[in-house]
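Dear colleagues,

As part of the handover before I leave the project, I'm documenting each prediction I ran so the next person doesn't have to rerun anything. This entry is a single chain, and its sequence is reproduced below.
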Amino acid sequence: MGCGASVPSSAAPSVSPSPAPVTEAAATPAPVSGVLGVIPARYGSTRFPGKPLADLAGKPMIWHTYHNAKTSAVLTKLVVATDDERIQKVVEEFGGEVVMTDVNLENGTERCHAVLTQLQSKGERYDVVVNIQGDEPFIEGSHVDEVARVVLQSDAVMGTLARPHIDEADVVGVNNVKVVLDVNGFALYFSRAVIPHNKKGTYDPNCRYWRKLGIYSYRADFLPTYITMPESLLQKAEDLEQNKVIEAGHRIKVGIVNEAVHGVDTPAQLDDLNDQVKKGLIKVPSLVVKS
């Protein structure tokens, strides 16, 4: 079987491909009580301390992430989850909603769960939680919609997004996570290696490789299970947490989009983004939103 087998039947050149027909029940999901968007934002990043408040095109990075995520058509509520009062102050000053979380939480997923738990204790109910990376300031609302949709319209417990690869450099790097899919768009495996992997062990320009993006959605009733699941063999082998979900027999649905957003991991990457914005090479959609 050739590389073409890795193309899901639901994949199409659009942000929101139609899901493959399964059963009438799956195609017509029950009414939902809400979709919660959470932007985890830590001040104490090892590689880039204070990153959420770093200046991008004259605004704090978290301002861009929040306003762009706000363009989503499916989110019932959007909050920033942080353990730092400096971030809280900035977000509340521009009208955003903040939920304070424990400083000892290990990652963004745990912050999402903490937010969900706090809101549920107030009587709020959500069926899906979307984890929106705070260091992706140009996140598109349509991406948020798509990652929520793949869970709402399937039996998957988690969702994420992927895009077609660009070139060999886009595939071979160990920091460029790849995913192989079944014909219905469910993830078979996530890897830092080149997958699919041919007999020659070389990159094939005629193969369809899928690059995973850094956004996730979870069924709200699965999130408590997810954060307590023990590390699995495949998770530790690849250093990719989502593999433990597949290894445990759960399903992750992958939505297909055409382009990735610009993430920021280091000060040098932020400097490069600011330079591209000044030169007009990158449009900043959030700047058209009145603050």
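The chain has a mean pLDDT of 87. Residues 32-261 form a domain with the Spore Coat Polysaccharide Biosynthesis Protein SpsA; Chain A fold (CATH 3.90.550.10).

All the best with the project,
I.
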